[in-house]
Design a protein that fits this description.
Elements (H helix, E strand, L loop, with lengths): L17 E7 L6 H6 L3 H4 L6 E7 L8 H5 L5 E5 L8 H10 L4 E5 L4 E3 L3 H11 L3 E10 L4 H4 L6 H9 L14 E3 L17 E4 L3 H4 L14 H10 L5 E12 L11 H19 L11 E4 L3 H13 L14 H7 L4 E4 L2
Parallel strand pairs: 1-2, 1-4, 2-3, 6-9, 9-10
Antiparallel strand pairs: 4-8, 5-9, 6-7, 6-8, 10-11
């Protein structure tokens, strides 16, 4: 893939359009793959359009400045000494360190990206006054990872799985070896609970009050879901889903996905209790009238079928336009901006 610059006028500016903040913690295996999917050649855009700010949340040993900054001149590495267990502090500090006009947040550095995310994020940045640009989450493997563990899924099997497709040359191949994450189980056209790669304008950052550091558990508990919910229910923001793109979770010893089902259920009760104590309510995914921007690669087209089957099941969605798979397939071959209102 060749890096191009769709905005040649931007070469006159010393500031990037995007700053994408990636939090890592003890991800020596996973982080290099994630960061490869953020390189200019993989994303197909010039390095001067964006920067990657890697926030190391106290890894032992540290991931390292050399490992990160050798990947591309637009990568920066910041290590947090005495880091809190939650990544909320790292995300907020990454936002303060960022130079871009559009801030992207990745709470989990184990999530690889598809190749069009940054290109479409830039398009949405120019198209909307107050965009909240959202991506869906997928898990590598054919089964939701906490369930896959019961069938023997582990890092070694995942390494073999990744070798089965040429993802470095064509990142859309990741759709062939993945399934929807639980938080995105309804697909691009249904309600989702969170976005593990979400963008807002730097000028809008103050409206969000940042990531709430009250969510102080390892992994952040419901910190990311809370941020997504607050942004999507703020009437100033214009939620935009990047259609046909996504992030792909690598199996690691994470706070939730790395646990087997029983331990995960116990942990879920704890983090839900904390959310209720902080927000005085039970978490429910927001019902959002999204706009859409993007395209459907051949590999992603199969994933859209689930969304077209699910869309009429949800309160608040039934009144939207009826969408069939064939409609989506043939109306989204190129860049679109479709409003479901």
């Amino acid at each position: 893939m060749t890096a191009t610059n769709p905005y040649p006028d931007h070469e006159k500016s010393s500031e990037p359009i995007i700053s994408i903040i990636v939090v890592v913690y003890n991800m020596e295996r996973e982080a290099p793959r994630t960061l490869h999917t953020l390189t200019p050649d993989y994303q197909g855009i010039n390095a001067n359009l964006y920067e990657v700010v890697v926030m190391d949340n106290g890894s032992e040993p540290p991931l390292g400045k050399e490992v990160v900054e050798s990947l591309s001149d637009n990568f920066r590495y910041l290590y947090i000494d005495d880091a809190p267990a939650s990544p909320a502090f790292a995300l907020n500090n990454g936002a303060r360190a960022a130079r871009g006009k559009l801030l992207g947040f990745m709470i989990d550095g184990a999530r690889m990206l598809s190749p069009g995310i940054l290109k479409y994020a830039i398009k949405a940045y120019h198209a909307y006054e107050h965009p909240a640009i959202i991506t869906l989450g997928f898990h590598l493997g054919s089964t939701f990872q906490p369930d896959a563990v019961l069938e023997g899924y582990d890092q070694k099997k995942e390494d073999t799985l990744l070798k089965s497709v040429n993802w470095k040359e064509n990142g859309y191949e990741l759709f062939r070896i993945s399934c929807l994450a639980e938080s995105s189980k309804n697909g691009w056209l249904g309600p989702i609970s969170e976005s593990n790669c979400i963008f807002i304008k730097n000028s809008d950052w103050s409206m969000t009050n940042g990531f709430d550091v009250s969510f102080d558990m390892p992994g952040g508990g419901m910190c990311n879901l809370d941020f997504y919910h607050r942004v999507c229910t703020n009437e100033t923001f214009e939620p935009v889903i990047i259609l046909g793109e996504g992030t792909f979770h690598q199996f690691h010893n994470g706070s939730m996905t790395g646990k087997k089902r029983k331990k995960r259920k116990r942990q879920a009760k704890i983090i839900n209790k904390q959310y209720s104590e902080i927000r005085n309510s039970t978490f429910k995914p927001p019902i959002v009238n999204y706009d859409y921007i993007g395209h459907l690669s051949e590999s992603a087209q199969k994933k859209i079928r689930r969304s077209t089957h699910q869309i009429n099941r949800f309160e608040g969605v039934r009144s939207l336009m009826k969408v069939t798979y064939e409609h989506v397939k043939y109306k989204t071959k190129s860049f679109i901006c479709m409003m479901l209102k």
